[in-house]
Amino acid sequence: MAKKVQKTDNQDKVKNKEGKEKLEKEQVETAEDTPQEEEELEEELKEPTSEEIMAELQNKYLRLSAEFDNYRKRTLREKMDLQVTAREDILSNILPIVDDFERGMESVEEATDIKAIKEGLKLIYTKFSGFLTQQGVKEINAVGKTFDTDLHEAITKIPVESKKKKGKVVDVVEKGYTLKEKVIRYAKVVIGE
Q1: Which of 71, 113, 136, 175 is the most buried (most CB within 10 A)?
Q2: pLDDT per residue as tens digits for the range 53-112
């Protein structure tokens, strides 16, 4: 029985030896058949030089810079288009009021009734005030309010009799306006002292 085990071990060794020789032969043949693949593998494994790294970084920088420049130009163009569209919308809404003024001026030359002219002017003013309100423009109410440099521009000071009126707005020379909570024209006021 010991002879059988020894014989089997010898056979396994011979088979293993033959398998190793075959494997080595295949590896040699494969290496001989594909030297180009081997060079490509070496290229991939080789670390890039500092010049290659610099060239790659410079290329990335140039691409990023060009992309940002294109973005900046596109947003600027879109912003300008938006402004033109907004102006166009506002101006087209003002045109009917201009038409009303023209009709009113024609009727003034031929009219004999002053009361009708006054009513026509009030209608045009009301229409124009409504348009401004639609656009978000509000008048700054100043008379009787405490002077506020964020809303008012003092033109002069006048003496007042009452202590309650000191530091308050006594008169408005020119109305002020806000557009959606931002002052677009300060109210020119007279302050009591």
Answers
A1: 175
A2: 999 999 999 999 999 999 999 999 999 988 888 888 888 888 988 898 888 888 888 878
pTM of the model: 0.54
Q: Which domain, by its residues, includes 119?
A: 81-135
Q: What is the DSSP string of 152-172?
A: EEEEEEE--S-GGGBTBEEEE
Q: Hey, what long-range contacts does 157-161 have (CB within 8 A, 24 or more apart)? A: 157/190, 157/191, 157/192, 157/193, 158/190, 158/191, 158/192, 158/193, 159/192, 159/193, 160/192, 160/193
Q: Judge if 144 and 131 occupy the same domain.
A: no
pLDDT score, position 23 = 60
Residue 187 · residue 178 · CB < 8 Å: no
Whether 4 is covered by a domain: the verdict is no
The answer to whether residues 193 and 142 belong to one domain is yes
